[in-house]
Design a protein that fits this description.
heterodimer; A: alpha/beta; 4-stranded antiparallel sheet; 14 strands; B: about 325 residues; alpha/beta; 8-stranded mixed sheet; 5-stranded antiparallel sheet; 13 helices; globular
């Protein structure tokens, strides 16, 4: 289901699933499962930024953690440079973590308060036997300099720094082992706007200089549009749309993406939005709706009984623009099949006008 | 202009800490008219939340509202009235919607009880009446089957529904002013849209004034008619919303607007404001923004700027108001 590419991808995720069991009663009998991630596939090319967006509980962070194997997947594969990470033993995985690093959301809880900044950045160098002694010291100072911190900060502790500076420390720690791929889990969500811009620019500079690939997980759609080459939108454990950043924001095809984008407030009081307001809340992933998981809240005019029956495939609706919706044309789910599932309305292209100036 | 609903003059709230005096709010003056929505924006540590708490006199030691501060409301100065009077104001005449609905609600009482309690405290009457009013209010804020939901506890509700309950509680006494401190920051964007829509509807219905405190300029652009920008414990700019977004005067406001990525506007690089917000125990001399400002010159380091009048209802705390040619010069150098 993932988009074909001419060159081979750096990271290839296929059919990734994570079900967390729900235990009930004194004997801990499993009574069901929370389908946090339910069959997710995508590729990340070398040097590329793939944005992964969605609302709380959509499974985007769980996906990132499974790639790092901080959470063990229930099913599926994660291939990095041709090696399947899911079946790797712990020792081999630890070695590979040199290539795959992570930047966390909260710069306050992700840095050990009892370690100096120097020790935090240096730890990876020691563990992976990259540098020792004076060479390691020099490397740490150089890394701090690269992320825009003064090299003499090595002997200070995390609490002496602001949120933005701590996030820079986290980035220096990730870069120390010279990774090629970084999972960025909401890296700027906790930062103020002016500081957020500094960190985003830094991440883009580092990417350009080092050819890094990012999986950029975030809920802030405007930040993702700015930094990502391609964007995958998740809803209830599934990818519902995947396209280049330009295409996705210009012409979202999946009704959920349309609603999500239309909900973003625009910092321009002269623009009046025609808003697609979603009613109610996201259903529980322990008991997701049948068929298309979005159908109970969907605003597509052709929505009908077939949407509750047929699981929509993630299909290519326009060149390199993938979306999961049997009512958005073109679709591979033929009209006869939809009718057999109770469909009464033919698929049609639905593109609500999202914003206009007065 | 008619007498404003709320008139704040030279509000100063200081915290006497071990590291010195933190001048969190340092000489803030503004008005809020009846039925108006005013946006109060700024980054962490600019003093916007302390301003909100000061209006309700919820400042605890080592914090203190300094004498000489004035908060005129219902022809009384809230800074000097006794605590008993203040209690009759809180929740009834001025109420507050907090950021985190889970901490604003008591986990061991049903949501119906919590709203009914507000009614009983301020209005008296029977338990039955208060409960009926609570259920009616839950319906007003768009909670489906309110009679059943009223018996539920906060943990049984989603984040968006909890925020609706908090709003119901804030509005149940039909207050003149609601202070909403980051009311949608903890919510997902689609839920945020629902809550902002609800606030707008309720404002139209009840004619409540809203002080909307947020760091999100997008939220302000869509909801407020007038915007106050704070930096370093002071107001640095105030303007009607359209004017602020079109012709921001203060370099800090300009920096904030440029630093935001906008959906639908691809740019290679985001503009940044160098450095970070200074600690409130040591605001810089002169203009408090001067060491982060790309226009700053020697005057800015020594002379604290007053709020200059820029246009109708538009003020800015920046010496550029007197020397506008300097902005042009810097802009020309940048494009050269």
């Amino acid at each position: 289901m993932s988009a074909p590419h001419t060159s081979s991808p750096l990271l290839s995720v296929h059919g990734l699933v994570k079900h967390f069991p729900i235990k009930k009663g004194v004997f801990g009998k499993t009574s069901g499962a929370v389908r946090a991630v339910d069959g997710v596939s995508f590729n990340v090319m070398a040097g590329e930024t793939l944005g992964l967006v969605g609302e709380s509980g959509c499974g985007k962070s769980t996906t990132g953690r499974m790639i790092l194997r901080l959470i063990e997947p229930t099913a599926g594969s994660v291939e990095f440079d041709g090696i399947n990470l899911v079946t790797l033993d712990k020792g081999a995985m630890r070695k590979l973590r040199r290539k795959i690093q992570v930047i966390f959301q909260d710069p306050f809880s992700s840095l050990n308060p009892r370690m100096t900044v120097g020790a935090i950045v240096r730890e990876g160098l020691t563990i992976h036997k990259i540098a020792e002694g004076a060479a390691a010291d020099a490397r740490v100072r150089q890394l701090l300099d690269e992320v825009g911190l003064r090299p003499e900060y090595v002997s200070r502790y995390p609490h002496e720094f602001s949120g933005g500076q701590r996030q820079r420390i986290g980035i220096a720690r990730a870069l120390a082992v010279e990774p090629t791929f970084i999972v960025c889990d909401e890296p700027v969500s906790a930062l103020d706007v002016s500081v957020q811009a500094q960190v985003i620019n830094l991440m883009q500079d580092l990417q350009r200089d080092r050819g890094l690939a990012y999986l950029f997980i975030a809920h802030d759609l405007s930040v993702v549009e700015h930094i990502a080459d391609r964007v995958a939108v998740m809803y209830l454990g599934k990818i519902v749309e995947l396209a280049t950043s330009a295409d996705l924001y210009r012409e979202p095809l999946m009704p959920y993406t349309q609603a999500l984008l239309s909900a973003v407030p625009i910092a321009d009081p002269t623009i009046r939005k025609t808003r697609v307001v979603l009613h109610g809340d996201v259903p529980s992933p322990a008991n997701p709706p049948s068929g298309c998981v979005f159908h109970p809240r969907c605003q597509h005019p052709a929505k009908d009984a077939a949407c509750a029956e047929i699981v929509p495939p993630l299909e290519e609706k326009a060149p390199n623009h993938w979306a999961a919706c049997i009512k958005q044309t073109p679709t591979s789910v033929e009209w006869g099949v939809q009718q057999a599932a109770g469909g009464t309305k033919r698929p049609e292209r639905y593109l609500p006008v999202l914003a206009h100036s007065d | 202009m008619a007498e404003p609903l709320l008139r704040v003059r030279d509000l100063r709230t200081y915290f006497y800490t071990e590291n010195g005096v933190a001048r969190a709010v340092d000489g803030v003056s503004f008005d809020i008219g009846a039925g108006e929505t005013v946006g109060l924006v700024g980054e962490s540590g600019c003093g916007k939340s302390v301003t909100a708490l000061s209006l309700l006199r919820l400042i605890r030691p080592p914090g203190r509202i300094e004498s000489g501060s004035e908060i005129q409301f219902d022809s009384k100065n809230l800074v000097t009235v006794d605590e008993g009077f203040m209690r009759s104001v809180r929740g009834a005449r001025i109420s507050m919607v907090f950021q985190e609905p889970m901490t604003a609600l008591n986990p061991v009482f049903t949501i119906g009880d919590q709203i009914a309690e507000v009614v009983r405290v301020h209005h008296g009457g029977s338990k039955r009446e208060a409960w009926d009013r609570a259920v009616q209010m839950l319906e007003t804020v768009g909670i489906a089957s309110p009679a059943q939901r009223a018996h539920e506890y906060p943990h049984q509700l989603s984040g968006g529904m909890r925020q609706r309950v908090v709003i119901a509680m804030a509005l149940v006494m039909n207050p003149a002013l609601v202070i909403a401190d980051e009311p949608t920051t903890a919510l997902d964007v689609t839920i945020q849209a629902q809550i902002l829509e609800l606030l707008r509807e309720l404002q139209q219905k009840f004619g409540t004034s809203i002080l909307l405190i947020t760091h999100d300029l997008g939220v302000v652009a869509e909801s407020a008619s007038r915007v106050i920008v704070m930096y370093g414990g002071e107001i640095v700019e105030e303007a009607p919303v359209v004017e602020l977004f079109a012709t921001a005067h203060h370099p800090y406001t300009e920096g904030l607007l440029n630093a935001m990525p906008h959906v639908g506007q691809q740019r290679d690089r985001l503009a940044t404001i160098p450095g970070s917000v200074p600690p409130p125990t040591a605001w810089p001399q002169g203009c408090r923004f001067h060491d982060r400002c790309s226009y700053a010159w020697d005057r800015c380091a020594t002379e604290h700027p007053p709020l200059y009048q820029i246009g109708v209802g538009h003020v800015s705390r920046c010496h550029l108001a007197e020397e506008p040619e300097r902005r042009v010069a810097v802009a020309e150098r940048r494009s050269a």
